[in-house]
Amino acid sequence: MSIAEQFSLAGRQALVTGASRGLGQAIAVALAAAGADVWCHATTVEGTDDTAAQIRARGRQAWQVTADLSDRSAAQQLATRVLDESRGIDILVNNAGTIRRRPATEFTLADWDLVLRTNLDAAWLLSQAFGVPMVERGRGKIINIASLLSFQGGITVPAYTASKHAIAGLTKALANEWAAHNVQVNAIAPGYFETDNTQALRDDAARSTSILARIPAGRWGRPDDITGAAVFLASRAADYVNGHLLVVDGGWLAR
To answer: Which of 39, 124, 130, 160 is catalytic?
Structure first.
C-alpha cells in the first residue's frame, strides 16, 4: 500500500461533533478533503451550514445533525439517528465541548455538571454507541479531543480540567479493550488555539502575553494546524497507534 493510500479516507463516513466552527469545522473539512463523507453535528442545523458547504464543495457528502450534548438522552438519540441513517460510521471525532471560568471557591455545581456532561458523558455515550458496531465489523477510528489540561491543572477551570483528564483516561481504557478488534482510540491534545474557548484569554492582554511567551512557535495555533493530526489518526497510517494523546501545541509542553 502506498503512502497516499494509507492516508486516504475514500469510502469512509465520519461523524464530527461540534463541527460548526473552530477546530471541529477544520477537522470535518479536512476529513472530507482526504476523501470521507461527513456527518456534521452542532446544536442547530444552521450552525453547520458553512461546514457542510465546504465539504460539498470538495465533492463529498455532508449531513447536518443536531443535539444538545449536555443532555444524555439527546446524545443517545443522536447516535441512534446516525446509526439508522448512515451506512456505518468509520470515524468518530468527539470534539464538542464547553468551558466555564470561575475560581474554584466560587464554582457552581450547575456549571460543573454542564461541563462534565458535555465534555465527558457525551464522548463516552457516543464512543460506546459507535464503538459496538466498530468492534463487530473489526474496523474503526475514534478520536477524542483532549487538551493541555489533560496534563496540567490550569487556572479557574476545575471542571474543564477534570473532564479533559478524564478524556485522556477514557481514551486509554477504550484503546486497551478495542485495539485487538482493529479499532483504534486516540486523542488529540490541542495547545492554545484561536477558538471561542480561548477568547477570554486572548482578550486579557496580560494572560495572552504570558501564554505566548511560553509557546516556542511564538503564536497561537490556528484551526488548520490540527487537521494533519486528525487525518493521520483517522487513516490506515495509524492502524498501530492505540491509546495515544497526540499533542499539537507549538511546543508548549516542551518548554
So the answer is: 160
